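User: If only I could read backbone structure tokens as easily as an amino acid sequence. Those tokens are not coordinates but codes from a learned vocabulary of shapes. Could you go through the record with me and say what the backbone is doing? Here is the record:
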Amino acid sequence: MYKVYYNNRLILISADSQPFFDEKKGKKLSGTFNVRDEWMKFRNDESCKAMWMQGHSKGLWNKFKKIFMRVEAAGGLVQNRHGEYLLIFRNKKWDLPKGKQEKKETIEAAALREVQEECGVSGLSIIKPLQTTYHIYELEGWDMLKHSHWFAMSTESEEELKPQQEEGIEKAVWAKPEQIKDYATNMYPSVHDVLHASGII
């Protein structure tokens, strides 16, 4: 199954039945349909909150990806020695630090670099890879499909956090696990997915 978010709206691409999919809030497509045409209908109809493309998931996914300019990104779910998690506030949302992968850079190196640059955190170590997420956004008239690779990280650093203001980051904070649910009321769905899969919310 592939899950993609667009402006907090959901696109599912799957061969399997999805009992949690609410067809009252969206539409289900199966059989023969034009992937590009259906994307454009969904894109332009804000009343449609979800779309499920059911069929051979790999084949549908490859057709879907061809519609977009694609971006690879990486970030981290970082925990410090006190068991707190690193959050940033950007574009009026609480988020996890992440950014675009540079040329000739491994995805792991990109994740470490972006977290350090966006928050001023040093001494980062990757513990393990987490899931990947997808979301679509618009840039200079293009529809961009961002594929974000997430990693569980740790740090022993006690340095003061330094939010990267030139990247629009207003705040960087350490949050206790019991505080995350409050922050999560103002997060993107893809970040929810990372936190939920990690057992934090």
Remarks:
- The chain has two domains: 2-65, 69-197.
- The chain has a mean pLDDT of 95.
- The first strand starts at residue 2 and ends at 6.
